[in-house]
Amino acid sequence: MSACIVGWAHTPFGKHSEEDVESLITQVSRGALQDAEVSASDVDEVVLGTFNEGFSPQGFPASLILQADEGLRFKPAVRVENACATGTAALHHGLRAIESGQARMVLVVGVEKMTALPGPEIGNTLLKAAYLKEEGDIKGGFAGVFAHICDLYYQRHGHQSDALARIAAKNHANGVHNPLAQIRKDLGYDFCRTLSDKNPTVVGNLKRTDCSLVSDGAAAIILTDEETARTMKRAVRFRAATHVSDYLPMSKRDIVRFEGCTHAWQQALQHAGVTLDDLSFVETHDCFTIAELIEYEAMGLTPPGQGFRALEEGWVYPGGKLPINLSGGLKAKGHPVGATGVSMHVLSAMQLTGAAAPEIQVSNPKMAGIYNMGGAAVANYVSILEPLV
């Protein structure tokens, strides 16, 4: 039994000084129910995805969703967490409930309130997604983890600052057209490529434009079974949904290869019975620009060490053979950790139903690919989505 997305809601990502986790959850929960044109009493289960780990003082947040509507009271509620892939992990919990027949309709919410913490505390909180025994003292926190990966990539494949700048510029140009994005400014290649007072080094070879944003925000999705979905106004079907976990310590892996990402993509494409050529676009996890570059290679778009070709030959730009991160990605849209995976699925569902912003709407999209990553390619989730017809 395939599960389908039949409704969604999404706050703008950015700094929401007047909101807390509770109000963000309530806002998108009500919005998703309204969008799907279902009542809270129709929902069989609710799932909350939030990384937290110190971002919010409120522990035990799962039942906060029930406060969105009294019709949710006494429904089973659970909180799911898997680092930066938390949102998709929550969706997988909902998918299993539907595919097993335990639920007919599930409300999934992803949320994070990050900006209330001082900068150093944000870095320390995110670093908990690394292997602290070996990586806890890396300079620059979690950005330092990816700076280390960047250094190793450059040592093996040559300096790729041009490619990283192209990725940042591409995603910021796309983000201009996404009303939900945190930064809607076309920064341009030259700005992203050049070290400056406004684009300083963060750590190692990573500049500010190479790093995703600290964000607040939430997104929600209503899932249901295919039979029910066919009675609703619109639906997007999961053709495949895979999850692959790899070792947490970077020392136990060839960290430049993102092997877990490769396995997740291979499994998803095989389960869906398609190839990359069948996809109309991809939303991928660009927590840092070096991650997006390596993901081109891990997904099979280019051979190892040749991810730059996807940029030089225009494949990943709007109108290219496989546009990537038309939403602006984490780089421009923002990265409220627990909300990111749900957001990726919302933005992809909008594309597949013709509801994206006109400037970034793909013409007649057939199928979407999504890659959401937790840690440094530790938790790897790939979804293949298509309109239900």
From TrEMBL:
InterPro entries, per the entry: Thiolase (IPR002155), Thiolase-like (IPR016039), Thiolase_C_2 (IPR055140), Thiolase_N (IPR020616)
Domain Thiolase N-terminal: 4-182
Occurrences of domain Thiolase C-terminal (ranges): 250-386
Entries under Pfam families matching the protein: Thiolase_C_1 (PF22691), Thiolase_N (PF00108)
Domain of life of the native organism: Bacteria
Name under which the protein is recorded: Acetyl-CoA acetyltransferase
Organism per entry: Kiloniella antarctica
